[in-house]
Input
Amino acid sequence: MNEPLPSDILLEVRDVSHTFQHRGVRRPALKNVSFDLPAKRTLAIVGESGAGKTTLARIVAGLEQPTNGSVSIEGERPRLTAGRPSPAQMVFQDPGDALNSFLPVGRSVAAPLRQLNRSRRRERTSELLRSVGLDPTRANERPGSFSGGQQQRIVVARALAASPKLLVCDEPTSALDVSVQGQVLNLLLELQDSLGFSVLLVTHDLAVVRVLADEVIVLRHGVVLEHATADDFFANPTHPYSRTLVKEADHTGHHRI
Amino acid sequence: MTESPVLRVHRLNVTAQRPSGSIKVVEDVDLVLGQTEVMGLVGETGAGKTLTIRAFLQLLPPGLQVSGRLDIGDKTIDLGQPGAAGHIRGRDIGLILQDPVGMFDPLIRVGPQLFEGVLRHDLLNNEEARRRAIDLLTSMGFTDPEAVLHLYPHQLSGGMSQRIGIAMALMPNPLVLVADEPTSALDAHLRLEVLELFKQIAREQGLAVVLVSHDLGLVGRFCDSITVIYAGRVVEQGHTGRLRSHPEHPYTTALLACSPTLDTPPRAPVAVIPGTPPTPGAWPPACVFEPRCPLAFDRCRVERPALRADGGHAAACHLAFDERL
Amino acid sequence: MSKLRDQTSISVRSNPSLRFGLSLLVSLVIFSILAWLFLEDPNRQNLENAYAPPGSLPHLFGTDALGRDVLAWSAAGIRSALTVSVSVAILSALIGLLVGLVAGYFGGTTDAVLMRLVDLELAIPPLLLFIAASVAFGGGMINLILLLSVVSWVTYARVVRTRILVERERSYVAAARLAGARIPHLLFVQLLPSAATLVFVLISLQAGLVLLWESGLSFLGLGLQPPTISLGFIVAAGRSDLVEAWWIVTFPGLVIVALVLAFNLIGDGLRDAFNLDVTLLDR
Output
């Protein structure tokens, strides 16, 4: 694999540390995490829960500011700006939580499209729903009338509405039935191919990593233990912790951490 | 199986009452469980597997009617009679729910909650209950069971809660343990540990286990037999080995193909079952899997396949057990 | 809010509280309308016919010391009672909803300041406030409505704030922020619906309380006064004749009871239908 050119780098994470502070109690979550993510590539962050993966995902997306270090997407710090969708969008673990149960799904999907006029917004919403394999005429229905897998696809559609450069996926398939996970994974593969966004995938599920990732970072207690290409990681993990992870996943013939 | 089964569910049917009429949500489910058998009850969300176990334990929410018979040990229960299962629940059959945290009263320490069931039913006295609790906690892997008894539920991690929940279900020395998605709420690294534990318990304590899950791949590694539920009915049933190597129902084949492994080719589409499972009230009239089945032919649209058996293995498919295939 | 009705599809048929409450309220309203159409002005005095006992037609409920028809008064009193309680409920709900949304979403200093405002309001004994305000601003329906609203909004604010504190952590809110949502959108489109059912339940429960306040104040002479009809007023007027002319106090009193009961039943019914755990502050 060739080293990506500097101009290809979409996401730069430099020395990011984050400590949670609550009523005098400090809990370090991340310690000096650094990595680059080139355009159109998928990087998976793997680790047990408590490793800091979700915190890292939220920081990269701009939902939280790190106590130390910097993050930049195409040279800019990710920041939530009212009136403009962020260049980083998220796909969340629980689709039921990620959609406002009171609003019709069309409205949720159209949320990043406020700068368009009404008819153009409606068109685009239909396009987006179709691109995730859903019937656009169902845009007026509430999330409750969709299955978990369909809800997750709506979440993806909403993320795409913002034409993101980076898609941060936090356990995108963990809450779904195994038989439905494939639909979402295939969708992500297909859309990334056609639209060219980068993906930061946070997960404990190594089989999902195998399907989606180009590169893998192993995170434990907030520290990066290993950063390798996916092929290298699965074929020959260097860090002992990584070796355990892969071996256990392999031994059971089933993904696990 | 030469010994007689410890649990038998006979023609279980669950009907929901809606303003528009009554809808079948579980249809004609039969289950047979041997004395130390670990059975996996597998199906997608909404297929009816949770309803099935709640039905034979008579734990259904109001508005649902059950009919059928349950044989456990030497007792027989008519499931159509409300309250009939009361005396076997928590005694002959132990139940472990999906959410380990929800099983505990947050205001009471772990110890008293463990003792409560057996003391109330007069199965053991205080001293015996305490000893049994400590024994069980030790076999669950706790190194200091005495200390655990004094903890409050909020001090427990997810894995600890689940293991204590299992201990709680085992206190009355049941014949059968039913676990409803016992690992879904857990971090993945605990899942295998907990499932190993179930298998170990079955061996050591000599009881049978029913494991309900949507994950055929995961559960298939720990179960002696598997029952596959789709649209409220059994579509395949049999020993794990045979079911995994020679599934007779196309749904089972598809489910097996869906379970991702590390051998899945990278950056390539994974296997899926196209479409979505039918909702109760909208089940296809003939074969329920037909709309999504790659092998469907004319007869499947007209005639509902019955559950046919061939030497301990059963499948509800017109193409099952066909040597030509 | 048709969206809410779809979402929860309240079944009136299987909800006895709601059914009885609504029936009772509707009956009282119809009673009031019919009386307004067919009976004479409640304020009309007829000294010759004072203290007529109930049953002496056409005064089914009898007359009071000044010959006023108790039936007409009771029915008319329903109108003012409902006007005041519904207006106060809606006004205080709007204020409380706004405060709760802002405090809950922004947290931090904003929340602290607003909650101190709530504490301040709770610290003032309402009766004192009413007396002072009555003296300062006079009586009348508008003043009464405003006053009662000032006292009532806190309940809504606290309940809504608690709900929003939880709701703002949900990932759909994060998604909305990532999509570039502005504050008004977040508060009124995304978060408000989750608090709406709570507010509806509170409104119906509060309405009964407000009605009692109105009756009580009118009873004390601080609330509505003639020519405005108030149930509390005639109860006060009939107080001295409680033993001999029991009907003057009793019938209007029963109407008050019926109205409050109706509101409480509706509130309970809604609370059950929406499966909420809502309790009023003890005022």
Summary: The radius of gyration of chain A is 18 Å. The beta strands of chain A are 9-22, 25-38, 42-46, 68-73, 88-91, 166-170, 198-203, 215-220, 223-229. Confidence is low (pLDDT under 50) at residues 253-257 of chain A.
